[in-house]
Specification:
The complex is a heterodimer. Chain A is an alpha/beta fold. Chain A has helices at residues 24-39, 66-69, 87-100, 122-128, 134-140, 148-162, 166-180, 194-198, 262-272, 289-298, 307-312, 329-333, 339-350, and strands at residues 7-13, 48-52, 77-80, 106-113, 202-204, 207-208, 218-225, 236-244, 281-283, 363-370, 375-383. Chain A has a domain at 7-117 and 215-225: Peroxisomal Thiolase, Chain A, domain 1. Chain B is mainly beta. The radius of gyration of chain B is 17 Å and the shape is globular. Chain B starts with 24 loop residues before the first helix and ends in a 7-residue tail after the last strand. The chains are: A alpha/beta, B mainly beta. Chain A: This is Thiolase domain-containing protein.
Chain lengths: 385, 157
């Protein structure tokens, strides 16, 4: 996985929309078009296509039929990848492995999602989804509607175990918002202070609306290539990847959400021959503010300090030791699952971050989590010299 | 506010789980007798997740649903303020508890009745059954009211 030959050479993003509209297929088509232009390629230059979407609330999700819908020529690699929030990193990892094995040369990875549908708010759509069978059916019959209450339980437990408090959530949320102010693609770009945070409506204690990601309709496409002659002038080398899928059981006397992710980061760094201190930026999966705090500790990115203290000291901000979620993350930027942190890492390593650019950023950690912290994936990227 | 068909204090009947052919059918069948049954490994008796098909301890595939003590301790608890209009009939925020049962299992529950107080992590609860659309749903009753805090409290002292 450490081959410098595999690089991210194209990036395409649609507008991230807070209003219903286009289908996942239309969004994917547009993102792929932008990515190919960005990479200076035609569809005929592509011999691999990986598609992803959320498990989602609508039936017309993106699938491998996008190969024909999207106008591709004959392919050597075509898969739908689905590991919940770890999907995007798994796609890049899959593409890199295929390229290194000679099974493909240039692979388009596209993720499109359109959870916002006409006539309903996002919260309402999620509250009505989940079905009536199995464990989810029982949980919904107990009032667990949407994904917020589950993460609220996780947050309450985490705060109980670690001593973190709501001020830590507030600091994470306001710090992330501050980053969004410099990102033209962020969907929320109004300044936020502690008073504004505490005025946000409570959804499920301790999580307020502003502790939760902003779902959007949108798509991002990334071109991965082993051909050093093609692509954007600034190549982003895929230096390492790691995964960990802790198989959890819910039993009395034990934790069921924490631990089991650090190895993904350890392995990605080992592939890259890097240490945590070599990382210039971290782009983590932050569907809820509490998750970023948990992951900073889980991935051992705080030098042993409690995550809340680390964030309140400004270490994840522009002048900190590890600028984190520099585009506003999923909280204030946009929630397009694993593409949110990946796209921001590419922007930063290209030096295209504008007002939010971290000076001299050449290395990035990209994180992905899925389920209830059941899947961890990590990617180490480096701007090619 | 729209009228919703329900006899439950919290939710509309439309959220009643499917019972026939469901993985959790034994739980619902026993609940009708006010009995709490949960899955164990038929071989080594390890308490299993509700939807587990093979024991992670010994590899056996035989699941034994057995009656357990209707008591446990709160592992985590939240108060849900967002109330989806078509699904939630309660007019106030409601608790959701993640309970460690004496049997070794964990179970998500709301409270048995509309409650003025919410248990905290570590508090003991007993288990009874709400009825939602004719389906018995495990629910928690605080066993030690003196440890409870007011519903709207967000403090974590």
């Amino acid at each position: 996985m450490s081959s410098p030959d595999v690089a991210l050479v194209g990036l395409g993003m649609t507008v991230m929309s807070l209003t219903p509209g286009r289908t996942p297929q239309e969004l994917a088509r547009e993102a792929v078009g932008f990515a190919l232009v960005d990479a200076g390629l035609e569809r005929g230059d592509v011999d691999g296509l990986l598609v992803g979407t959320s498990q989602g609330v609508r039936p017309d999700r993106l699938s491998v039929t996008f190969a024909s819908q999207g106008g591709f020529s004959d392919l050597r690699l075509l898969e739908h990848i689905e590991i919940k929030g770890a999907t995007t990193i798994a796609m890049i990892q899959r593409a890199a492995l295929a390229i290194q094995a000679g099974a493909a040369r240039t692979v388009v990875c596209v993720f499109a999602d359109a959870p916002l549908v006409a006539g309903k708010g996002a919260g309402s759509t999620y509250a009505h989804s989940g079905g009536h069978s199995g464990v989810r059916g029982l949980e919904r019959a107990s009032g667990v509607l949407g994904s917020v209450p589950t993460y609220a339980l996780l947050a309450q437990r985490w705060m109980h175990v670690t001593g973190a408090d709501v001020d830590d959530l507030c600091a994470m949320t306001t710090t992330t918002r501050a980053w969004a102010l410099g990102n033209p693609a962020a969907v929320v770009r109004t300044p936020l202070d502690a008073d504004g945070y505490h005025a946000s409506p409570m959804i499920a204690e301790p999580l307020r609306r502003l502790d939760c990601a902003r779902p959007v309709n949108g798509a991002v496409a990334v071109v991965v290539s082993g051909d050093s002659a093609v692509g954007h002038r600034t190549r982003i080398a895929v230096r390492g990847a790691g995964r960990e899928h802790p198989v959890r059981h819910r039993r009395a006397g034990a934790e069921s959400w924490f631990g089991g992710g650090r190895r993904a980061v350890d392995d990605a760094l080992a592939n890259a021959g890097m240490a945590r201190t070599d990382l210039d930026v971290a782009e983590l999966y932050d569907p809820f503010s509490v998750v970023t705090l948990m992951l900073l500790e889980e991935y051992a990115l705080t030098g042993g300090r409690p995550a809340g203290e680390f964030v309140r000291a400004g270490e994840t901000g522009p002048a900190g030791t590890l600028p984190t979620n520099t585009g506003g993350g999923q909280l204030s930027g946009f929630y397009l699952q694993g593409m949110t942190p990946l796209a921001e890492a590419i922007v930063q390593l290209r030096g295209d971050g504008g007002e939010r650019q971290v000076a001299g950023a050449t290395t990035a950690l990209v994180g992905g989590i899925g389920g209830r912290l059941d899947h961890h994936a990590a990617l180490v990227l480096e701007r090619a010299a | 506010m729209t009228t919703m068909l329900t006899s439950d204090w919290l939710l509309a009947d439309s959220l009643a789980p499917d019972v026939s052919d469901d993985l959790l059918a034994p739980l619902y069948a026993a609940g009708a007798r006010h009995e709490l049954v949960l899955p164990f490994c038929g071989d080594c008796s390890l308490p299993l997740d509700l939807d587990q098909q093979v024991c992670d301890g010994c590899g056996a595939a035989e699941i034994a649903w057995r009656p357990v003590e209707k008591a446990g301790t709160v592992h985590s608890v939240t108060v849900m303020h967002r109330r989806e209009p078509d699904l939630v009939v309660a007019s106030d925020p409601y608790p959701i508890l993640d309970v460690e049962l004496a049997s070794g299992h964990r179970l998500i529950m709301t409270t048995h009745a509309r409650s003025e107080s919410v248990p905290r992590v570590g508090d003991r609860v007993t288990v009874a059954f709400r009825e939602l659309g004719g389906v018995p749903i495990p629910s928690a009753t605080p066993a030690a009211p003196r440890h409870t805090v007011p519903l709207t409290t967000e403090a974590r002292s």
